[in-house]
Amino acid sequence: MGRQRRETVRMQAAELFEQKIKPLEVARRLRVSPKSAYQWHQLWRDGGVQALASRGPSGSRCRLCPRCLQKLAAYLDEGPAAHGWVEDQVWTAARVATLIGRKFHVSYSVSGATRLMHRLGFSPQVPTRPFAERDEQAVTVWKEATWAEGKEPGRPAEATSASRTRQASPAGRPKDAPGADAE
Predict the structure, then answer these.
(1) pTM
(2) Exposed end of the chain (fewer CB within 10 Å): N or C?
(3) If DSSP states are collapsed to H, E and C, what string results for 51-117?
(4) Which residues contact 24 (CB under 8 A, 6 or more apart)?
């Protein structure tokens, strides 16, 4: 259920409570759990309609100001090599968390850095462009030769575990069962 829908449903619940309708009936009418309806009823009794109003999105606030977020996006656009990771051109969430710590002196967890990257339109661990040093011909040769050698062959058809089963006697089969008329 989206945030706006929840807000609407809570406001509808408040209207029903004002009409002296019991929480169980409110839950049934609004198709919510009785637990939610009882919690809303308690909030409504204690603080009225305002108590059921949305308080905005939950969760912690971003620890970087809008200007810092713009700077971070620019740093990410520069690529990992510009910031000391020369072994490949992949931004991992761990690297982004480290970069944030170095540049802004703010600690982010790996999962927090992932969410922040998504918010900025980046995807962790996915290069934005192919590696400049990638040799497509060498990759093709490797796939055809080395990969084919290392890959285990599939199981031969005769090694499967399928076997014939004995058909149950028609006498023990219900008359309306699928295939009951088969002999």
Answers:
(1) 0.43
(2) C
(3) HHCCCCCCCCCCCCCHHHHHHHHHHHHHCHHHHCCCCCCCCCHHHHHHHHHHHHCCCCCHHHHHHHH
(4) 34, 37
